[in-house]
Amino acid sequence: MSMFSWGAGSRKGLRRSDVVVDSNSGVHFVRPKSKIQDISVGRRIAAFLRGDGNVDYLWSVESSDGKAKPGKLNSLNLKEKIEEIRCGDAHVVLISHGGKVFLMDTTQIPRCMKGLNSEHITQVACGDQHSIALSQGGQLFTWGQNSNGQLGLGKGEPSTMSPQPLKSLAGIPLSQISAGGDHSFVLSLSGAVFGWGKNSAGQLGLGDLSDRPEPVDVSCLSLKKTIFISCGTEHTAILVKDGVVFTCGSGRYGQLGHNSFRDELRPRLVAELWGSKVSQIACGKHHTLALVGSSKIYSFGRGDQGQLGNGQIVNQCVPLSTCALITSVEQRVTKLVAGGNLSFALFDSTQECQKGPAKHKPTIKKREALDEKKIDKWISGCNSSWKRIQSEITAIFSSASSINGSFLETGCDEHYKTSAGYSGLDLSLARIAFEKLSTTKKERRVMMKVSQVVEQHLLPSLSPSPAGVEGLRVYLILPELLRVLLKQHRGTDLAVLLAEAILRLHPDSLKALGMLWSSLSGSFIGAFVTTFRSVCETLLVGIPKRLFGPEALQKVVEVLQRVYEATHRRQVPENMFQIKNIIAQTTLKMLESCPCIFDLEAKYAVFKGTAEKMKASGFSNFWLPAEFELTVRRTELLESVLSQLRSADHHQFRMPLKVKFEEEDGVDIGGVSRAFFKLITNAFSTEGSKTLEIYDDSQCVWFRPDRTICTGTSESLYLGMIFGMALYNLCTVDSTFPQALFKKLLGLKPTLEDLEELSPCQARGLKQLLDEDEDVIDDLYLDFTVKGHDLIQDGGNVLVSKANRKRYVDLYVDYVLNTSVTRQFEDFSKGFDLGCPCRTWTMFRPDELMNALCGEVDYQWEELQKNAIYICTPTDKTVKDFWKVFFEYSDENKKKFLSFVQGTDRLPVGGLAKLRLAVSKLNVTNADERYPQASTCYISLALPNYSTIHTLRKNLTHAINHCEEFGCS
User: Fold this and answer.
1) Edge-to-edge strands of the sheet including 296-301?
2) InterPro entries given for it (predicted)?
């Protein structure tokens, strides 16, 4: 491999036997006797890595005029074969074949960096007086001067010559590290750029001049597919995959290439190179090089010592081609090198140049990543000892950066689109890989080793605050491993540790992870949920409690709740999260914090138990009555109830409710209360309510707007009390409120879909507005008002347009369901809290609270017969005739029958499957003259021994249509 060199002292040959050809432009063609593998240049030193792994170097000496003069060419005598060299201002860092690091300073005596003895280093970068090293496991180390925060260790940290781990970037899979004068950069596999250190000229590209003592995401480079970064003393050049170059920082000498000498605080595209498909860039102290094609090199910046290679010694602020000597030689430039005031171009031999233009691919050397090929090798065991396989497993699965850099979506460079809502992963590759690992019993030891390393090394090392989305990929990949382990009846312990790691995340990182969960396809989020739910079910058995303690279940369930909150608005079914038979084995605390694992029946059972305990606790307080008794009149139901509620003490609502209808001898053991709540809630909406109005297009009820209500009216307060009392006393209400009411009770904001349930006509018009063309919207002449009410200030003078129609719709919905009924709802909510002192109801979702309070509406009539209890012979003719008549009834008459036997036609939580109708037979002499008897408290039906089915049908139909009073037969 030969080279061109130009700039300060470039005439000096490497050896006397080297062939050196000069040109008038100051560019020298050098054909070394031995192959040059790499070059690195600093202000006072240039180092040359030869093909045999040995290193030569030139140490410059400053003359009286301040210019550096090259010294004698020396060779390093190291036993280790060197693979990489990097030069700082006056020091050289070398990496050996085995990953050891050596440092040579002004003493010119190389010494091993003891602080990195246990690490396998794969990359180094040098600034003027600081250095960065990247290990095979993805850990960054920095050392040297820290005057401007260039070590990235944090504010106030001192300079140090001992390598320090840079923990803030732990877990990010890195492809390149770079350092300039007093600033540093790292580049992730998916193009995320982080910079820190001196920023006096904007060289960090952050839009300001403030130094950064810790790594900061250069967000303006996100999604640009950055593949390489080079740093000068006070400027930075960035190369993206499309061959475009951006520069920022000091432009004093024109080194930014923007046809000016201004500084740039943010990365700016070098327009002169637009469309040129740049493949390599390199920054010297104050100049920049760019390679286009196989041998065309552009240079710009400082040129007083010939470092631009154009035969001139002037500064140049636009990219221009270097001398013709380089492009005239039919060789392929493989690497550009710039440092200090020197420039080099390495190129291939004639035979190698036939391969076409070089493409610069800056990837981590020996970067460990998990892929299908490596897994195939592990399970086959070909040419690999078990000891070596164990070493590889440990190297990969103990490193978060290795895992985060695996299974990338490489098709069309999709992983470069990694962002808050996209992980950049192809999880199908992870699924295939882990399933392969579990294919044969023979290789179970591989999975056991993987699981062991993940538990003991990876999970404890995870940072609670990853620097970016790429650091969160591990939380999407490991559940796929966990899924396979659970199939082998292992992995419960790993699941608990993974849950702990997730819950340790900083709230911002946890929020970002939630966005990634929500972006997953149904298959993968479904597998995640199923896996963690399975772990919960295992923990409920109690076997692993000795390993984790009682907190283990709580942690895994909390992760499920987090996933539920992130995904419940998507296609993930609610029942996927729910665990059966959990009530007796859990706590109220878990239910309140993680309700997603409980179905409605489980939640209702817990609510019922809590409410019953509260009622029972009142008996220990002798100053409280044993029950809250309401005596009401059917003829003046609403007035008689409100008068008693106005005088009730709030302590009374904690006691069991007992309802007594005047002039009726029914005893309330549940049935009378059920009938009462049906009647009273119906009375609110039918007896000229001042609070409610019925929407004609849906027959739903809603609060009247505040402006139509007289000041001081508190009817909605008592309506809320009635609803709260019904829930607390395990009864249902006869209500046609839309789900929006229950959303508001739970603190959730109603949407356009909720308005559609209340008023389909209004919602239909708003949806059409969102879909109309601009011309149609303009012709409507809509303004920002609803029924004369301004939605915004001076809304009558603001017309709805295509640009603001979404805002209009949102404000319209908010006005109807929130703003216009603020006082009414606040009173209702206050009354609800008084009527239901058991706050456990907040665990319900809106639809669940609606079902618990208003009853189920899915009438599976066969379930009533299926679950009936018989206090007689089920095959008796009268009983058989009853069921025949019942199933002949219309749905309306069937509901009347329910009201007859239980006081309401609303179904309890769980539907008719939870209703136990007790059927008995009355053997009386005058049976055909009697009606069937029902006890609403016990939900029982007594049938006289009718002579014919016709008589049974006539008497039962009369009973369900005309018998309303309690105690009448």
Assistant:
1) 278-283, 287-292, 296-301, 316-321
2) HECT_dom, Hect_E3_ubiquitin_ligase, RCC1-like_dom, RCC1/BLIP-II, Reg_chr_condens, Ub-ligase/GTPase-reg
Q: How far apart are CA 516 and CA 266, in angstroms?
A: 29
Query: How high is the pLDDT of residue 238?
Result: 98
- What digits encode the pLDDT tens for the residues 548-583? 667 888 899 999 999 998 987 766 788 888 887 665
Predicted TM-score (pTM) above 0.70: yes
Q: What sign does the dihedral 553-558-563-568 (CA atoms) show?
A: positive
Which residues are within 8 A (CB) of 74 and not within 5 positions of it... i.e. 6 or more apart? 56, 57, 58, 59, 108
Angle, in degrees to the nearest 10, between helices 474-487 and 492-504 = 160
Task: Enter the CATH code of domain 2-355.
Answer: 2.130.10.30
Note if 937 is an active site residue. yes
CA 618 to chain centre: 46
* Strand, coil or helix: 141: strand
Backbone CA torsion sign across 253, 256, 259, 265: negative
Facing residues of 753 across strands? none
Amino acid 955: pLDDT: 93
Do 624 and 618 touch, CB atoms closer than 8 A?
yes
Answer for the pair 304, 297: CB distance below 8 angstroms, yes or no.
Answer: no
Find the catalytic residue in 112, 536, 937, 963.
937
């990837």: which residue's tokens? 363
Name the CATH superfamily, with its identifier, for domain 763-817. Hect, E3 ligase catalytic domain (3.30.2160.10)
Question: CB neighbours of 311 closer than 8 A, spacing ≥ 6?
Answer: 24, 25, 26, 323
Of 14-28, 270-284, 844-858, 906-920, minimum mean pLDDT range: 14-28
Class (C level, CATH) for 620-748+821-854: alpha beta
Which helix (DSSP H) or strand (DSSP E) does residue 920 occupy? strand 918-922
The whole-angstrom separation of Cα 190 and Cα 955 is 79
Residue 416 C-beta-side C-alpha neighbours within 13 Å: 16
DSSP 41: E
Distance of alpha carbon 814 from the chain centroid: 28
The CATH number of the structural domain formed by 862-962 is 3.30.2410.10
For residue 39, the cross-strand partners are 48
